[in-house]
Structures are given as structure tokens and as C-alpha cells.
Amino acid sequence: MNESVAIEDKIDGNVLILLIKGRLDAISSIDVEKQIFDFISEGHHNIILNFSEVDYLSSVGMRLLLRTTKKLKMLSGKLVVCEINTNVMDILKMSGFDHVIEFAKTEQDALKKF
Length: 114
Known about the structure:
The chain has 114 residues and is an alpha/beta fold. The protein has helices at 28-41, 59-74, 86-94, 107-111, and strands at 5-12, 15-24, 46-57, 78-82, 102-104. Strands 1-2-3-4-5 form a five-stranded mixed beta sheet, with helices on both faces. α1 runs parallel beside α2.
């Protein structure tokens, strides 16, 4: 795993919650995507990404969100991203991702979407 990012995972019912810590840049996003797709391959099709500790999101990080959303939709699953800081949310909104990806204010709000 790239040293600029770490992932902590936990399960709440049938939802996998991944706490992403660090920067989702061009290098780390590839590692994170592989790890998320490994979880999906293991049968986790309802996923929350907690971004409370993500301080940077590159275009490759945005692609990761898009690819994960598409993959989960094909498997009748769902992705919700929560606890996004203002700077990262501004990037997502400017890119139109607020119309493509489901967001929630808190982890508890995200859990209610499943």
C-alpha cells in the first residue's frame, strides 16, 4: 500500500465501511481501487467510503469513485461516500460528481441509504 494512504475496514450489517486516510492522488488511488475491487470480489456489494480523513482527491481518485459506482451498480450494489471535507466536496461538485455519486453527511446517514 502506498504510504500516502491507508484503509481501515469494518462491517455494519451487510455494509462494508472503508475509512480512507490520506491523499487519493495518481499513485495511491490505483492501490485503493485494487483493494476496493478485492472487497467487491469477496462479495461486498454495499460499500461506504468514509472520506473524513481524505485531504486531497486527484482526477484518478475521481475515476476510482466512478469505476466503483459502476461496478457496484452492475452487481445490484451501492456506493455511498460520506464525511467529505469542503475542499474535496468542492472538487466533486465542480466536476458534476454530485449528480453521479451518492453522498451522505455522516456515516450514520450513509448507513440509512441501504
